[in-house]
Amino acid sequence: MAASNPISWSQRTFPSPEGTIACRFRAHADGRIFDAINGSADDAPLLICAIEHDALRVRATTPRQHVDLDIEDTTGIADGAMHTFALTFGEFGTRVYLDGSQCFSGTANLCPTTLTGTEGSGQGAIRLAGPSIDVTDMRLHATPLTSESIAALTPRPAPDIDFAAAQLAPRDVRRVRTLRSGTIFMHFRVRGPRQYGTLLAAGERGEERLAVSIDDNGITMTAADGLYEPSTYHARGAWDDGRWHDLSIRSARGAIDMYVDGWHELHQAGQVFFGDWPQLDEVAIGQNTEGVRLMGEVRNGGVFTTPLTDGAIRRLSDAPALTTTALFDKGYHGSVSYRIPSIIRTPHGVVVAGADQRTAIANDAPNHINFVMRRSLDGGRTWLDMQTVIANPGEGVDGACTIDSCLVCDERNGRLTVLIDRFAGGIGLPNNTPGTGVDRHGRPCLYDRAGTRYVLADDGTVLDGGGERTGYRVDAHGNVTHEGRASGNIYLKEGADPDESLLIERTSFVIELHSDDDGETWSTPRNINHMIKEDWMHFLGVSPGNGIQLQSSEHRGRLLVPFYCTGASLKHYSGGALISDDGGDTWRRGSMINDGRIVNGTAVDPKTIRDDDATTHESVFVERADGTVVCFFRNQNHAGRIGVALSHDGGETWDDLYFDKNVPDIFCQPNAVACAPRSDTMVFANASQMLPYRGNGVLRLSLDGARTWAAHRCINPYHYGYQCMTMLPDGELGLLWERETAGLYFTTLPLSIFGAAETH
């Protein structure tokens, strides 16, 4: 359809503020797919769906905000191939689909009737495409189609060259040997465990140049490289089980990506395809170039002359549809960025999700950061609007912050506790001073411009060094008055307020707050530094995500929250557990993982640690059925693997430390969750690869308490940072995850995505 053929829309098209816009397009360059206008053709578009820098981009203007969805993970779609596109919108916000799978989401509802600013009276048109993009099959639906419906309505991709025999015909060989990028697809099986062989091979002049094979260790592609050693690409897995599997190998954008059954298994730099050997004269299927046959069969497959998108590969394999909802994203409630997910389910089935609201820039502290939440009363299907739990004074890099929330719940009474780090304006991990910042009673220490010291009493009065009352008072938000006159805020940066009088110490703090009504209301934050921090520590903070309550051991009911701290070096960390045996009223610090540890021949002292190999950074706990606490920790060890430490006394001490050879660590926050109380079935998640940005978010299922890993699934092979998980009331897994600075997104995942392994 050309741009001269607009499609009208009105309130009758979208009788409720929800619906779907779907189409097919073919693009050879950047351009506009369609836009939506309200009124005459001269009006500025309310909604634009386009390709920019070879990736999808959605822009809109709502009555509340300007929306800009930069869907950079779809790079490569101006390839001349036919693609399907869908935009669904409703109370959940907006979801974006490419080639049958969801590729992005936003908090804003982009239904055209809501963009007019007058719900119920809007009407206008959708204008199709620019000169560089062909658009067909534009359809408008009055309801938001589900992810499953969109997948079902998306045609399954058909190869440009089919595998119709054990070898490609000469004319097809001539076609493929011109391709420097594209996709190979095979539907195959071997006849049982330890059966093996070649799935595909290609050669020239009697020499094999390319081979794809399977054995009991996984799938390997080997590519000849002239005088150099062959390039090897290996996806580790157990696909020699006698079942039918789909293998897709995509060569594009400088890398090889392998997918099995629609799930991403490998991303490895080093693009190679048939066109690397211009004299190629043979392509064999189900055997090597010498005729040695696979112990199984390739039933069908083919070659696509363009690199398939992730959605197309998932559709090709009928991979299960996943649905993601944006909970916090750029522009939501006027904030530039949201980061650092925390999520938990209460005993009443309420799901509570927390986040850093980074109002002006996406940076860590120093930065203005509030602590915000959203709650779901129906197991994560719908979400209430955002509530600000802690609002901090200041703005930008000079603003005060609360950062890195960790949620834990006492299942006995339903109390939900948050521990979170606090910094004054202009202060953060790189520049905080040592000390606790409180007296032995936990009362915050204050100082004035002259350096005179004071103490803030629990009732808001300020005491001088002799314990006498002064004319100062400080309210719950840090606002200072002196003899009734406004006199600054204790949390602001030095010199930020001309009325400045008293300030809190320039160190790190951990504060506690709790809720007894499933997160609807919260207690006044209280400082717990006097319980957990020592004077030699610069920084002590909690590891963001979730804590646990012990279920199986003699310490049943104990709360554990992971922490980490710095000593003389602000770049080297030691971690362990914060422990509460009274439901979160009091906390103490257990031994650190680094206590008594020998690394590179030297005893580690958390006060003076300077060895990257010894760093134990952000961490997460899970409890095995036998009561052992497993700690996974982020680290800078040269092994490049997730650190693991075990506690056999409820988090008091740690031993049996090792680095799991099967789990990569790129120095990014890990998370894990037990799938049921007193169970060894658990799921671990982390960003597992530098792309070169942090990405490749992988979930791993263990059936034996994280001793081994039975299965894994890549949730997003591109941008992926921090994450947090909880088990939902219906037994599914709730995953709240980052696309770095774009926002936090919630995905519900049935354990069945791991295949049959979880039933063993």
From TrEMBL:
<dbReference type="InterPro" id="IPR023364">
    <property type="entry name" value="Trans_sialidase_dom3"/>
</dbReference>
<dbReference type="GO" id="GO:0016020">
    <property type="term" value="C:membrane"/>
</dbReference>
<dbReference type="GO" id="GO:0005737">
    <property type="term" value="C:cytoplasm"/>
</dbReference>
<dbReference type="GO" id="GO:0006689">
    <property type="term" value="P:ganglioside catabolic process"/>
</dbReference>
<dbReference type="GO" id="GO:0009313">
    <property type="term" value="P:oligosaccharide catabolic process"/>
</dbReference>
<dbReference type="InterPro" id="IPR026856">
    <property type="entry name" value="Sialidase_fam"/>
</dbReference>
<keyword id="KW-0378">Hydrolase</keyword>
<dbReference type="GO" id="GO:0004308">
    <property type="term" value="F:exo-alpha-sialidase activity"/>
</dbReference>
<dbReference type="InterPro" id="IPR001791">
    <property type="entry name" value="Laminin_G"/>
</dbReference>
<protein>
    <recommendedName>
        <fullName>exo-alpha-sialidase</fullName>
        <ecNumber>3.2.1.18</ecNumber>
    </recommendedName>
</protein>
<dbReference type="InterPro" id="IPR013320">
    <property type="entry name" value="ConA-like_dom_sf"/>
</dbReference>
<dbReference type="Pfam" id="PF13088">
    <property type="entry name" value="BNR_2"/>
</dbReference>
<dbReference type="Pfam" id="PF02210">
    <property type="entry name" value="Laminin_G_2"/>
</dbReference>
<comment type="similarity">
    <text>Belongs to the glycosyl hydrolase 33 family.</text>
</comment>
<dbReference type="InterPro" id="IPR036278">
    <property type="entry name" value="Sialidase_sf"/>
</dbReference>
<dbReference type="InterPro" id="IPR011040">
    <property type="entry name" value="Sialidase"/>
</dbReference>
